[in-house]
Amino acid sequence: MRTTLTIDDDIDARLRRYAHRRNMRYKDAINEALRKGLERVEMCEGEPEFVVETADYGVAAGVDSGKLNQLYDELEQRSLPE
Fold first, then answer.
1. I want to staple 19 with a disulfide (CB 3.0 to 4.6 A). Which of 29, 37, 62, 65 is the partner?
2. Residues ≥6 apart with Cβ < 8 Å to 19
């Protein structure tokens, strides 16, 4: 099928280099690039959006989570018999 496309200069240059390196016709390079691109797009269409679910770890307000080892040591010392 014949059609007219407007291709950005940077994409045109990349396609021409791609075709030259692989010793193929320019139109074949365009078709191959479109096929590969569409395959990727179609693969991603069915994938669910990645969502990070949060969890409540129960750290009380005012507790510095960066010093939990220190807190553990303090609690351990309190629980040791004197």
1. 29
2. 25, 26, 28, 29
> By the 8 A CB rule, do 19 and 25 touch?
yes
Query: How far, in Å, CA of 11 to CA of 5, rounded?
Result: 12
Would you state the structure tokens that stand for residue 55, as one six-digit string? 């969890």
Q: From 29, 36, 24, select the one nearest 11 (Cα to Cα).
A: 29
- Its pTM surpasses 0.70: no
pLDDT over 80 (residue 3): yes
* Rounded distance between C-alpha atoms, residue 81 and residue 76, angstroms: 10
With 0-12 / 13-18 / 19 or more C-beta atoms within 10 angstroms meaning exposed / middle / buried, residue 18 is: middle
